[in-house]
Amino acid sequence: MPEYIHQHEKWTDFRWQDAAVSAALGEARLLQGRIMGQIHSLGLPSKEERNLDMLTSDVLNSFRIEGEKLDRDEIRSSVARRLGMNTAGLVPTSRYTDGIVEMMLDATQNYREPLTEERLFGWHASLFPTGYSGMNRIAVARYRTEEMKVVSGAIGKETVHYEAVPAKDVKAEMERFLSWFNDEDTKIDSVLKSAIAHLWFITIHPFDDGNGRIARAISDMMLARSEDSAERFYSLSKQILAERGEYYGILKRTQRGNGDITGWLVWFLGSLKRALQEAEDGMRNVLLRSAFWEEYKDVRINERQRMMVNRLFDGLSGKLTSSKWAKMAKCSTDTALRDISDLVEKGVLTKGEAGGRSAYYEVAFKTSGQL
């Protein structure tokens, strides 16, 4: 009796229950269309800012799922430069950060291009430029040649969660996967295809490391195709991170199943729906921000000030004080006070009721009231 899905004959002839999957797909597609409609009503600066925020979030959260914490400011700077946005005031970036961003952006910005072995190898090389994963040397920019098990627990007490496709079969399995992925004549909805591609790729587990991050990039690539847009206005990786336990649980159950992937598809589409719902909720602040910058378009504001005002619209945790401004904007307290005083004088910010060291500031926005 086969233990894993890939041990079944014709294992990629996936099956699912149409009624359950169609209902979940319909809900996700409805939200997707509604958000795209809202996005089209935004001005260009607001669209660019939202796209920058979501791409930054997607990179950060895809890596956090694997337990790796990246520097948000570095990632944002690297994304902004590659999108051709104003880079004044952005922090310097490392070669490693730029490689990660190049890999993630290639998936979504060049979504119409075929997914090829060479392209995947380039992505993998960007993830592991030194040839090491932590302290371990790995095969980079080529498929693995060793058997692969997903395990957890202390040495000698490991729990095997999954045993991947045998190394000798990886190349043939990947050729079949890539042929299916690039087949534009398939009658499968692109959103559904994103879910299947994620499962299929991660089940093959073709690389020594980085399979999860590349699987999520592949999903994002197909989602971009489903919208025919390189602009990202929600982050699926952020939602997967929030549901990481369920994510690994449904993967494990599906990979130990017999080819019925209904549970995986319903979970994936549900997670996508929740990501879209969060994006729709966040659109209120995007629309407020758009109206704000339209109202203050003739006011001279430097890049630090612009960044901090945008942070207020993003939902800053706690009150905005001069010390918090200095820390977040990476400037001195004196510079922070000058920035804040300038914005108060121009009517952009207003001082809260507290004084002294407890002084805080809010957006004085005629259209929205206080945030």
What labels describe this entry?
two-stranded antiparallel ribbon; elongated; 2 domains; single chain; mainly alpha; 14 helices; 6 strands; Arc Repressor Mutant, subunit A; 371 residues
CATH architecture grouping of the largest domain: Orthogonal Bundle
In total, the number of strands is 6
**Which blocks of ≥5 consecutive residues have pLDDT under 50?**
367-371
**N-to-C span:** 60 Å
Structural class: mainly alpha
Total discrete domains: 2
Number of helices: 14
- Quaternary form: single chain
CATH-level-4 superfamily name of the largest domain: Fido-like domain
Reported for the largest beta sheet, the result is: 2 strands, antiparallel
What would the average pLDDT be, to the nearest integer? 91
CA radius of gyration is: 23 Å
Which series of helices and strands comes N to C?
A: HHHHHEEEEHHHHHHHHHEE
β-strand percent reads 5-15%
Question: What is the name of the CATH class of the largest domain?
Answer: Mainly Alpha
Please state how the strands of the largest beta sheet are arranged side by side.
1-2
Q: What is the approximate shape?
A: elongated
The level of helicity is 55-70%
CATH topology of the largest domain: Fic-like fold
